[in-house]
Amino acid sequence: MTSTTAVRAAAPADTSVHIVRSDAEALEIVTRLAAEFRKGAQARDQNRILPADEIGELTRNGIFGVAVPKDFGGAGVSARTIADIFRILSDADPSIGQIPQNHFCWLPLFSNGTPEQEAFFYGRILAGDRIGNAHSEDTRKRPGDYEHQLTRVPGGWRITGRKYYSTGAIFAQWIPFIGQDEQNNQLMFFVDASSDGVTVVDDWRGMGQRTTASGTTIFDDVFVPDANVFPFASDKPGNRGRMLLASLIHAAIDQGIAEATLADARHYILNHNRPWIDNPYDEHAKEPFVIKEFGELAVTIRTAGLSLRHAADLVDIAHSTRTENDVLEARLAIADARLNCGAAATKVADEFFLLTGARATLDKYGLDRHWRNARTHSLHDPFRWKLYHLGNYHLNGVVPGPRTYI
To answer: Which intervals hold domain Acyl-CoA dehydrogenase/oxidase N-terminal (predicted)?
Structure first.
């Protein structure tokens, strides 16, 4: 697809989708696929080629279905496994890593619906359907203050509006957005991407994460039946911990970027750098200052990785116990991981150039994509507010509110 392509909808789900049965199988599959995806990451970034084939491979191999609950035929994999999936994918190509984020984030909402809704939508996911995203808008209003028009009609709703940051929508069969009913209750509307009036435009022009297709989705008097509408919040036991995955996945994407950057920096230093004039050794990699700084970057990444795994384990505990305290502990740990992994990605992507030289900036190496990806993705939500809420909690005992994005 070219950079200005408008499409009506993604292709129908593949009918030959593998169903993953365990965490171990999910990780084996994604590790194998990521090794192949890595080979084309630089070219896709430099030419803004959307990873349609790669998303198709993930789908056919069942990765989009691994979080479907076991009661509905899925593997119901752990949060630790989901974090590892996104870390591994983002190590290979963080655009591919980011595209399924909303799919995994919104999929648990099906459990807020009726048993019939759950069975239908979880079944569609196992059959290969993908969930996109289209709830943010390109305005100067606060997130959540929408300009879309939402009208109640017999049997459902009609929507008209223009959404942005629609990551994954161009590959999706279901494009969700958030709205409110007549009583101001938040609802999630899952729009069939093949509906009349739906247009997805690949007009994302970010300097990094270039091939996430996080562009525009246009709804022109689109009908959404009641069967495709879910409560955004629910009194069901699992609802309290369902939104923990969103920020955890973003931390995993940052961690993947950091790990890929360090690996590429190592390869460049060992294979392309020449020693500086004052270096007493014949190899650049033996320069004491390079060794020291590389070690510091490695420690930063390893520490961030430990933070990510700790947060994922607490998410699994929160999903199991569903207690208010365990959910809070998971939220705090996720905020820690998001800060640590984001800082690792931006630090390593910037500072490793100081260990190389001007030649490392040449297009043929494509190393600049790591900095652009890290900086772009780290701006998804402001770290300064995470630090504020964490500081206010640890200093003043103020628990971040349920809608606080930490």
So the answer is: 34-129
Between 243 and 48, residue with greater pLDDT: 48
Is there a contact between 7 and 170 (Cβ–Cβ < 8 Å)? yes
54: Cα separation from own chain's centroid: 16
The band of 7, judged by pLDDT with boundaries at 50, 70 and 90, is very low
Domain-terminating residue out of 231, 252, 283:
231
Cβ atoms within 10 Å of 291's Cβ, excluding its own:
12
- Which DSSP string do the residues of 274-311 spell out, in sequence order? PPPTT-SSSSGGG-HHHHHHHHHHHHHHHHHHHHHHHH
| Boundary residue ending a domain (172, 202, 231) | 231
Looking at the structure, do residues 384 and 241 belong to the same domain, yes or no? yes
* Cβ burial, residue 205 (10 Å; 0-12/13-18/19+): exposed
Return the bridge partners of 230, or none. 188
Total domains in the chain come to 3
Rounded Cα distance between 244 and 246, Å, is 6
Mean per-residue pLDDT over the chain, rounded: 93
* Residue 292 within any structural domain of the chain: yes
Q: Which residues, 6+ apart, have CB-to-CB distance to 162 below 8 Å?
A: 137, 138, 147, 148, 216, 217, 218, 219
For residue 154, the enclosing domain spans: 149-231
